[in-house]
Every structure is written in C-alpha cells, then in structure tokens.
Amino acid sequence: MTTERWTSATVYPDMWTDPDDDPRQALAKPVGEKETYWNYLKQYRITLEMKCEGLDAEQLARRSVPPSTMSLLGLVRHLAHVEQSWFRRILQGQADTPRLFGKSKEHPDADFDGVVADPAVVEEAWATWRREVAAADQWLAALPEADLGRTVLRGTDEIPIRDILVHLIEEYARHVGHADLLRECLDGRVGQ
C-alpha cells in the first residue's frame, strides 16, 4: 500500500484522520438489514486499510510475538482468503475455486506463513484482497434483502446468509483488533 490517504489528522495527531473526515462516517446511517451488515463490513475493511497505511514491506511483514506468525500483511492475506471462502466458495457455490495463498487442510496457516518482506508480495496481497472485496460487493449488491434468511450449504450444514454476513463482520472485527496492536507495536499509532 503506497498511498497515504489517512495521515492528516490535526485534532488527534495519533489518529489517521480527523473525526469529521473519517470515511467510515459516511456509512453510519444504513437503511435496512442488508445495508446495515454491508456497512459494518465496509467500515472494518476501511479500518484494515487505515491500520496498514504508510508502512513498508518489512513493517507489514513483521511478526508480532514468537511463536505467532501474525503480521499485518498476514492479516490482509487471511482476510482475502476469508472473503473468497465465504463469498465465492460458499455463497456463490464455487467450491472448486482454488484456495488463496496455498491454504489447505495440510497448511491451514499458509496465508500467514507465506508472508515475506517483499514489495511484490505486499502488492499481490492487496490486489488479491481488493479483487475479493470487489467480487463480494458485486454479489452483495445483487442480493435481494428478502434472501438474507435463505440458507446455503457449508459441508452438511445449512447456514442462513445473514448468519454468514454477521460472521464476516465478527471475523473482521477480531482481526482489526489484532491490527490495532500490531500497528501500535510498529510505530505507536493508536485509535480509530
């Protein structure tokens, strides 16, 4: 990530943007259940980008605390995988879509383990994440709100679409919390 969209806070200098300029505020007044879920998901996606803003490949790839393999770049790769797994493989029934980053039952942490401090790896991770987010948003845009209660199969379980969307929000919320701590360890930036 090379742009620096969120580095101009003047009210609270340790934050990414002033409260009135926070891009997530535009999503604060959703209309309807689907838009509510989607807006929370969008807010967490923006927060992930904010937490990674302005860092180089080495900083993004830096591991947290041994033996953990968690890093900001690993989180980007993991969340790209999460978007693909739920939106493409489960919700759209594309179960044969190859999993991202070599992730498999034999290598469940490949998205984190494959992180290296290489700008090309960083660029690939962001491009993959953005591609999966765009595909997810395209699918969500076409989803009638009345279909939120419709179920889809995951293995032998039938899961309502609304439950999957809530799970995705939960997944992002948890990992954005990790990103808070990882970023603070890197350069002390907190908040938002």
As residue ranges, the low-confidence spans are none
Order of strands across the biggest sheet? 1-2
User: Number of helix segments?
Assistant: 6
Give the termini separation: 19 Å
Largest sheet: 2 strands, antiparallel
CATH domain fold name: Four Helix Bundle (Hemerythrin (Met), subunit A)
Q: What is the mean pLDDT?
A: 89
Count of individual beta strands: 2
What does this structure look like?
- There is one protein chain.
- This protein is mainly alpha-helical.
- It has a single domain (19-187), classed as dinb family like domain (Four Helix Bundle (Hemerythrin (Met), subunit A)).
- The protein has 6 helices and 2 strands.
- The chain has a two-stranded antiparallel sheet.
- A hairpin with a 2-residue loop joins strand 1 (151-154) and strand 2 (157-160).
- Helix 3 (72-91) packs antiparallel against helix 6.
